[in-house]
Write a structure and sequence with these properties.
The structure holds 2 protein chains of 2 kinds.
Chain A (H helix, E strand, L loop, with lengths): L5 E12 L2 E12 L3 E5 L6 H8 L4 E9 L2 E2 L5 H7 L1 E4 L11 H10 L6 H11 L16 H14 L4 E5 L7 H16 L3 E5 L3 H7 L2 E6 L2 E6 L1 H6 L1 H7 L7
Parallel strand pairs in A: 3-8, 3-9, 6-7, 7-8
Antiparallel strand pairs in A: 1-2, 1-4, 4-5, 9-10
Chain B lengths: L1 H32 L6 H19 L7 H20 L7 H23 L14 E3 L3 E3 L1 H23 L1 H11 L1 H6 L4 H26 L11 H11 L4 H17 L17 H13 L11
The chains are: A alpha/beta, B mainly alpha.
């Protein structure tokens, strides 16, 4: 596979909850070893799109191609073994389980034979967790919980990592830490598809970016292109010159 | 003091062991499947009658029939889930709760049809208690119940904390949707929950039958104290349910102890103690002793 190989291709997707349609004919792509970011105003359908990719809501039509196979009819619990891992925005840890147990859970569905090696890699990315392995995850701070959640997803050795607003509710000090980590994760060979509210920062690390408005594609391009786009800046980034 | 130990504390621990084994299943089902399983007492009765039939057929002592009772009760529990509860899984919990009342009646009526309504016993005759230090009198079956329960508690603790299935069960109890996102097969976890809950309640049913007699209301009569034990320990916390069961059993027995010449509570009212404790827990510590799920 080349570096620009599509790992995920969402085609004309119409999806929502129950009988309500939220997404209308949405198209997005994620490429191998790249970060794709979805931004947009509240209610644009960003999280709905991520949930649709991970088969957590209703898909009415369109297709979701992962690694050249359609996953639109797959059950959620079967996607981890295919190499997709998802970190939800909230309630993304098992609070009564220890940090170590949370990380272990990530390996169960993935048939990962090198658990010790993966654990070492994850603790290398999140050294703060090493001292807290036996602590219940529910006792950690918001930033540490996010690290546990991302760490658990990485324990399954995913090819594609879906992140739903990984910086939501975190202090500004943690924002840069999380964005740096996402780049480190990408550099280890994991493709990332991320929904993010902190659009300016997210666009800086995005290789590809999509702006959703009212459940439809509004803009797409590289992060730099969108940061330089006057309409995008005015409508979604609070105006101002690109930095 | 020795009378207190012989006639109140030891029977309390024995009764508590029975409640503990039954309450584990109730707590786990509540924690993982998110509903109050009112047929759990009757599942216990199924275990007691399966053992009774095996005793009749083979002539084995009742405790030796535990594997057969466990097998039969597990099969009944898994079929019960497949036929009655699984189709209701996506609906609001109240449907499953009401269904469990129906299943309870179905099980009890089936038992009455198959085995009749008369009380039965595993063996006839009188067992002399064992005497220690000339004063401490314990029935050998009570020692067996307590030893079995302690061993089961250790095994359960190991299973839940050290095995993959046990950790998956705790994860599903914490958050079923996240467990599914992590790729855990929730239906496999649900099956494991039924198997463990049914196995332990079958053992409890045999203990009750050995201690008193086997009758069709055996499990139904114990449902309230078992629920109280599960709540006291914390919903979704099996070890909490075991501790809760012991506390309820001991409290029921020692509340009849005559401190100043008269019992604190008339022995005929002792079963109300579980109810009172359950109300107190729900008001003052709804998450239970082991910080379980809030109702």
């Amino acid at each position: 596979m080349t570096q620009d190989t599509k790992i995920l291709d969402v085609q004309n997707l119409i999806a929502g909850y129950g009988k309500t349609r939220i997404l209308e004919q949405v198209n997005i792509e994620a490429h191998l070893n790249k970060v794709a970011v979805i931004v947009g105003p509240n209610g644009a359908g960003k999280s709905t799109l991520l949930k649709a990719v991970f088969r957590l809501n209703q898909c009415f039509s369109g297709d979701i191609i992962y690694n050249q196979q359609s996953i639109i009819n797959h059950e959620t619990d079967s996607l981890v073994s295919l190499g997709i891992a998802c970190v939800p925005q909230t309630q993304n840890i098992f609070p009564s389980l220890s940090v170590m147990e949370n990380l272990e859970i990530g390996t169960y569905a993935a048939n990962n034979p090198n658990v010790a090696q993966t654990l070492e890699h994850v603790l290398g990315l999140f050294p703060d967790l090493a001292a807290k392995l036996n602590q219940p995850a529910g006792e950690l701070s918001g930033g540490q919980r996010q690290m546990v959640a991302i760490g658990r997803a990485l324990m399954s050795k995913p090819k594609l990592l879906l992140l739903d607003e990984p910086t939501a509710g975190l202090s500004p000090a943690y924002l840069e830490v999380i964005f740096d980590l996402i780049l480190q994760i990408r550099d280890t060979g994991v493709s990332v598809l991320m929904v993010e509210q902190n659009a300016k920062q997210a666009l800086r690390i995005a290789d590809t970016d999509y702006v959703l408005v009212n459940g439809e594609n509004a803009f797409s391009g590289s992060g730099k292109e969108l940061l330089a786009n006057d309409e995008v800046r005015r409508s979604f980034l609070g105006g101002g010159a690109p930095q | 003091m020795i009378d207190f130990i012989n006639y109140y504390l030891i029977p309390g621990v024995t009764l508590g062991s029975i409640y503990a084994l039954g309450a584990v299943g109730i707590s786990m089902i509540f924690g993982i499947l998110r509903f109050a399983h009112f047929a759990h007492g009757d599942l216990m009765t199924v275990g007691a009658y399966a053992a009774l039939t095996t005793v009749w057929v083979t002539g084995l002592p009742a405790l030796a029939t535990i594997p057969v009772a466990i097998a039969v009760t597990c099969i009944v529990a898994l079929l019960m889930d497949k036929w009655f509860y699984k189709p209701l899984r996506a609906l609001p919990t109240i449907y499953t709760v009401i269904a469990s009342f129906g299943v309870a009646m179905l099980l009890r009526s089936s038992i009455q049809l198959i085995w009749g309504t008369d009380s039965q016993v595993y063996f006839t005759g009188f067992q002399k208690p064992m005497i220690f230090f000339d004063t401490l009198r314990i029935a050998s079956r009570h020692i067996q119940f307590i030893v079995f329960t302690v061993l089961i508690a250790f095994a359960l603790h190991y299973f839940l904390n050290k095995t993959r299935t046990g950790k998956s069960m705790r994860a599903v109890a914490d958050d079923p949707e996240l467990a599914s996102i992590c790729g855990l097969k929730t239906e496999t976890v649900i099956r494991a929950t039924w198997i463990i809950g049914a196995a332990l309640t079958a053992i409890a049913g045999i203990f009750v039958g050995l201690d008193t007699d086997v009758h069709t209301n055996l499990g139904w009569n114990l449902l309230l104290p078992m629920f109280a034990a599960a709540l006291l320990g914390g919903i979704g916390k099996p070890m909490g349910a075991m501790v809760g069961g012991l506390i309820i059993g001991i409290a029921e027995e020692i509340c009849t102890y005559p401190i100043f010449g008269e019992s604190l509570i008339e022995p005929s009212y002792k079963s109300a103690v579980a109810f009172v404790l359950m109300v107190i827990i729900l008001i003052f510590r709804p998450q239970g002793l082991f910080k379980g799920r809030l109702l």
